Amino acid sequence: MNSEKQGELVTIFIISDSAGETASKLAQASMAQYPTVEFCLFRRTFIHSEELLLKALNDAKAENGMIIYTLIDPNLSKIAKEFCEHEDLFTMDLLNPVVHEISQRAHVEPTGERGALHHLNENYFKRIKAMEFAVKYDDGKDPRGFLEADVVLLGVSRTSKTPLSLYLANKNLKVANLPLIPQAHIPKQLFEIDPKKIVGLTNDPEVLIGIRKERMRAYGLNPETAYSDRDKIQAELKFANDLYQKLGCEVINVATLSIEETAAMIMSALDLEDHSYYFMEEEN
């Protein structure tokens, strides 16, 4: 976009023969680089016919939209490409160039199947089991889950333990978590597992105070309670950090991190792979 038109609305169309998640993530990552720009994002998904595609393309043309598409059907992909060239619209084919290159290197033709990424295969059901595991062993409901988990998350209240557990579960990792409260009983199982599977989550006191006050307001309660008291929070954080030191586990401060960033740091620190998209396992 021209720098002289900073106030102009930028419209992006996602066109896909499936759910459109791949293209949407690219669009959102790009949009995040321009916090002062106003965007309008349209999704045209499950496009399986020329009629539906042309309607989506003409809608994009009417809005002078940028077009990002994932269409595995060669005919539909060709129509989209030629339409955008003829109408001088920005377009990006996010799927076919990579698929074509894989074909050239592997000497195998693609299946051409729409939405293949979302197959209800063995990998998918492993991911569902991992999410069920995260729910079952959330908030220390059953300490025996620590012994089976790939990752054990520890942290005081409002350090994103549950969202992180579910996010990592979506990557086929079994995650259990335990809230830490001073003077509370620490399950013996925590000391029976490899500390390399444990991640201690911490936060800055000021950030935690703000989060907890907002939490109380959301419930319609007085934000000035022991839950958001500075001294109490500092005592909680000290208790947690002392435990982390005793366990010898990895420690991550989540104060300025998103769930995605924290999860990436956890997987890197624990040397874990994202198995959510694996279609083949190595043989021993």
UniProtKB/TrEMBL annotation:
User: What EC identifiers does the entry list?
Assistant: 2.7.11.32, 2.7.4.27
- Give UniProt keywords alphabetically: Kinase, Nucleotide-binding, Serine/threonine-protein kinase, Transferase
Residues binding ADP, per UniProt: G155, V156, S157, R158, T159, S160, K161, T162
What InterPro entries does its record include? Kinase-pyrophosphorylase (IPR005177), PPDK_reg (IPR026565)
Its UniProt entry gives the catalysed reaction(s) as: N(tele)-phospho-L-histidyl/L-threonyl-[pyruvate, phosphate dikinase] + ADP = N(tele)-phospho-L-histidyl/O-phospho-L-threonyl-[pyruvate, phosphate dikinase] + AMP + H(+); N(tele)-phospho-L-histidyl/O-phospho-L-threonyl-[pyruvate, phosphate dikinase] + phosphate + H(+) = N(tele)-phospho-L-histidyl/L-threonyl-[pyruvate, phosphate dikinase] + diphosphate
Domain of life per record: Bacteria
Q: Name one Pfam family in it.
A: Kinase-PPPase
Protein's UniProt name = Putative pyruvate, phosphate dikinase regulatory protein
Which species?
Enterococcus viikkiensis
The beginning of the lineage is: Bacteria, Bacillati, Bacillota, Bacilli, Lactobacillales
